[in-house]
Write a sequence for this structure.
């Protein structure tokens, strides 16, 4: 069995987003593997540890710097990596075409994709890929087991959660709670350097972007920032209540 | 035509259907505004939809009693193709975000996710949406014979109904087999107003100290205000509160009139779920907590004394 994990390299959540010439500028910022994708890699590794003959392949689509995120996944334990080099950001509908082609060529049985991307806030890549492959999907998955080619798990729905079963091949998107991703150990970081890192060019996949980027701006909502001293709790509570009633007019 | 997939629950058209209708009316593209109602026993829903649209398509079948991403995508893509829809609007709910990519791929269409604005500029569909955990607003454009768009809940005002209902037509559908078998379901239950619909949200973080502290402070204040209860991921991970109350990147997104954050430091992942609230109030002992930079009002101090004082103050009047 072969598992494909989609991996993205995103801005560290602690970093400030900067805009340059109307677009997000990531130069000089700390970039990390998307946490939602780490859940996918971790889950794939656990499935490999639980059964014989499982290979874990990690895939990123993006600029060369994305190799760092792939190296992190290799250091966690993935077997090999593929980078499809693309300088420009690719929308998910276009990207799903690349993923589907690779899944077919590599003989993939199960794909993990992050529930929501930390950069484009997209939730669509897993489902779009599943549709291209005519596979079923489970999104926002918070528990998963595999037995005899059948997945069982739990995933979030509009109001609550469901338990489900699903036959392979399938696409699974991740959710918090699925697992606790491992940290790469030093020996594994060393080992990861010798693992296969294949570089493809986006041109080979015949993909055209489907969205046109126009502009980006940092979301600034001016806040009043009236911060009171709470040493005298009763006085502060009285003052805050008055502000909410008579200035903001948001409570009765 | 503009095709709107009308979300509904409990025999009633959802708020999102009204919001998507407003988005479609503002967009003012040519062709009839068409609402699609999928489900079983949805006659009442279809009647409500008839007051919003130029025409209503109804697929009322036991096979549609329960949602399934593949079944929904197949049904919507068939109707969009047959009706030559140029714009397909889908609610930005968890399910809408899940099946919309399949609809886009089936129609060979671009997908705009979670639009907060939508305009037609020389035939191109232009939308704003939030990216980078809702810290950046990005403007994107999509062209083509058909574009699929999910609409962020709460981003558009609710459309007012027309005086007379439009015609309803039955939709003939060829539905695929379900491949995801549902073996059990846990529905969120709360005696309080639901988080996404609440006008006031009181939320607690680790700073409330304990599960008991959460109950006393956060629930206590929420009860006083008739508010919904929210929690940070740390509090949910600690097992103090159910996941259904989590606000943030991996939980719910809310934009109430007022969001009161108690003992919440303000991690980016949490802010992404509530930063669009009209007024934000923070109570925290750490004056340097990032939440204060995002707040309209705040009190620096011990939540254990301030929140009870606030509850007393609200009771007293």
């Amino acid at each position: 069995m072969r598992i494909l994990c989609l991996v993205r390299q995103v801005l560290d959540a602690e970093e400030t987003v900067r805009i340059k010439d109307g677009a997000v500028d990531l130069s000089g910022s700390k970039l990390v593997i998307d946490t939602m994708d780490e859940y996918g890699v971790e889950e794939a590794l656990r499935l490999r540890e639980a059964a014989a003959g499982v290979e874990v392949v990690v895939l990123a689509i993006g600029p060369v710097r994305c190799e760092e995120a792939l190296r992190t996944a290799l250091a966690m334990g993935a077997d090999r990596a593929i980078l499809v080099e693309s300088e420009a950001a690719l929308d998910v509908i276009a990207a799903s075409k690349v993923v589907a082609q690779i899944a077919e060529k590599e003989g993939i049985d199960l794909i993990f994709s992050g529930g929501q991307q930390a950069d484009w806030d997209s939730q669509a890549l897993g489902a779009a890929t599943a549709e291209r492959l005519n596979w079923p999907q489970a999104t926002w998955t918070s528990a998963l087991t595999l037995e005899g080619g059948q997945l069982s798990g739990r995933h979030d729905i509009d109001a609550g959660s469901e338990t489900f079963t699903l036959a392979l091949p399938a696409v699974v998107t991740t959710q918090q709670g699925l697992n606790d991703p491992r940290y790469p150990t030093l020996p594994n970081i060393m080992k990861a350097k010798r693992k296969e890192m294949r570089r493809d060019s986006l041109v080979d996949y015949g993909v055209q972007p489907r969205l046109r980027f126009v502009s980006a701006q940092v979301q600034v909502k001016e806040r009043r920032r009236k911060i009171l001293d709470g040493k005298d709790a009763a006085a502060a509570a009285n003052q805050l209540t008055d502000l909410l009633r008579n200035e903001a007019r948001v409570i009765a | 035509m503009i095709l709107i997939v009308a979300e509904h629950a409990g025999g009633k058209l959802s708020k999102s259907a009204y919001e998507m209708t407003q988005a479609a009316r503002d967009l003012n593209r040519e062709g009839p505004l068409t609402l699609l109602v999928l489900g079983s026993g949805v006659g009442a829903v279809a009647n409500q939809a008839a007051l919003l649209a130029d025409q209503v398509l109804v697929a009322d079948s036991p096979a549609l009693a329960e949602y399934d991403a593949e079944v929904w995508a197949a049904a919507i893509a068939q109707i969009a193709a047959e009706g030559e829809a140029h714009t397909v609007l889908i609610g930005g709910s968890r399910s809408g975000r899940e099946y919309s990519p399949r609809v886009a791929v089936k129609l060979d269409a671009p997908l705009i996710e979670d639009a907060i604005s939508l305009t037609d500029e020389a035939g191109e569909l232009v939308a704003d949406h939030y990216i980078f955990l809702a810290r950046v607003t990005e403007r994107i454009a999509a062209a083509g014979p058909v574009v699929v768009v999910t609409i962020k809940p709460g981003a558009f005002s609710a459309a007012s109904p027309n005086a007379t209902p439009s015609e309803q037509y039955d939709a003939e559908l060829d539905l695929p087999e379900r491949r995801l078998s549902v073996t059990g379901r846990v529905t969120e239950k709360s005696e309080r107003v639901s988080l996404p619909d609440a006008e006031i949200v009181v939320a607690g973080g680790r700073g409330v100290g304990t599960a008991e502290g959460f109950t006393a402070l956060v629930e206590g204040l929420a009860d006083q205000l008739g508010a919904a209860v929210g929690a940070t991921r740390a509090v949910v991970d600690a097992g103090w509160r159910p996941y259904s109350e989590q606000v943030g990147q991996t939980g719910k997104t809310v934009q109430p009139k007022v969001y009161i954050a108690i003992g919440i430091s303000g991690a980016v992942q949490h802010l992404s779920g509530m930063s669009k609230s009209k007024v934000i109030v923070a109570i925290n002992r750490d004056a340097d907590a990032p939440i204060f930079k995002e707040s309209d009002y705040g009190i620096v101090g011990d939540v254990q004394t301030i929140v009870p004082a606030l509850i007393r103050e609200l009771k007293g009047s």
About this structure: The domain at 2-170 of chain B is CATH 3.40.50.620 (Rossmann fold). Chain B has a mean pLDDT of 95. The two ends of chain B are 54 Å apart (CA to CA). Helices of chain B lie at 15-27, 43-50, 69-82, 94-106, 211-225, 233-237, 268-274, 303-315.
